[in-house]
Design brief:
2 domains; 7 helices; 8 strands; 245 residues; alpha+beta; two-stranded antiparallel sheet; Chorismate lyase; Arc Repressor Mutant, subunit A
Length: 245
């Protein structure tokens, strides 16, 4: 390994705001300041914790970056910390658009059809052009407002062995939002930030070029067969996406 010249101009190894950050962090995760409530004013906090306003603001900036608070210019600061739900099961393939929503999904609009796979689906699911797949566009709502959209493709051969009647929307919803993930043994996942185009704005009711988190998940069964291709589109302020690998 090539030797590198390393220099440091800092004489203060621990920034002054770290201690106040640690105290606020502890108070938030321990429930002194509860999720959804307002954080006390900066004046109150500087007095309580014995720090300058400048140091406090540095700590609040980091807390905001870490997702524990939401700062609004000229408005109050809200606590946005929730204890993560820890799943101890061996299950590794989950439905992120339902499970990672900050608020509980209370409605889903589903539109599905059947047909031959696209070339992309053939490649990613390793299926033949002669096979039939179910393709479903799904919009997820909280309080009548869309928060996420998914496009899911499932080869029909993997549905035939399930107790699913595709003539009933509730069973189709259970298939694409639950059962297909329960059948998953492993997954390949790809993330990126995109900007909404017309095909997305119509589902999420957002303006063109709105930042959107995009995730593609290819789900495999125990035989390493591709059983579903899932494309997820998340509104960033409505989701906290955590993956355990």
């Amino acid at each position: 390994m090539k030797n590198r010249k390393i220099t440091s101009k800092s004489t203060e190894k621990i920034p002054s705001y770290v201690s106040i950050y640690n105290m606020l962090y502890s108070d938030i995760v321990n429930g002194l300041y509860k999720d959804g409530t307002q954080l006390p004013s900066e004046t109150s906090l500087t007095k309580k914790y014995g720090v300058s306003r400048h140091t406090l603001r540095q700590a609040l900036t980091v807390l905001s970056e870490d997702g524990l608070i939401i700062k609004s210019q000229g408005k109050s600061t809200l606590i946005s910390y929730r204890k993560e739900k820890i799943h101890t099961a061996d299950k590794v393939v989950n439905n992120p658009i339902v499970q990672c929503s900050k608020d509980e999904i209370d409605a889903i609009d589903i539109s599905y059809n059947y047909g031959p796979p696209t070339e992309v689906a053939q490649e990613k699911l390793n299926i033949n052009a002669s096979e039939i797949i179910m393709a479903s566009n799904n919009v997820y709502f909280v309080n009548n407002k869309p928060v996420g959209h998914s496009f899911i493709q499932i080869p029909v051969k993997h549905i035939n062995n399930l107790n699913v009647n595709l003539n009933f929307e509730d069973q189709v919803s259970d298939l694409i939002n639950k059962k297909i993930f329960e059948l998953g043994y492993s997954a390949r996942i790809h993330f990126k930030l995109i900007f909404a185009e017309e095909n997305i704005t119509q589902f999420l009711q957002v303006d063109l070029n709105t930042p959107i988190i995009f995730m593609e998940e290819i789900i495999y069964n125990k035989n390493s067969e591709g059983i579903a291709r899932c494309k997820f589109y998340f509104l960033p302020d409505k989701y906290e996406i955590n993956l355990n690998i």
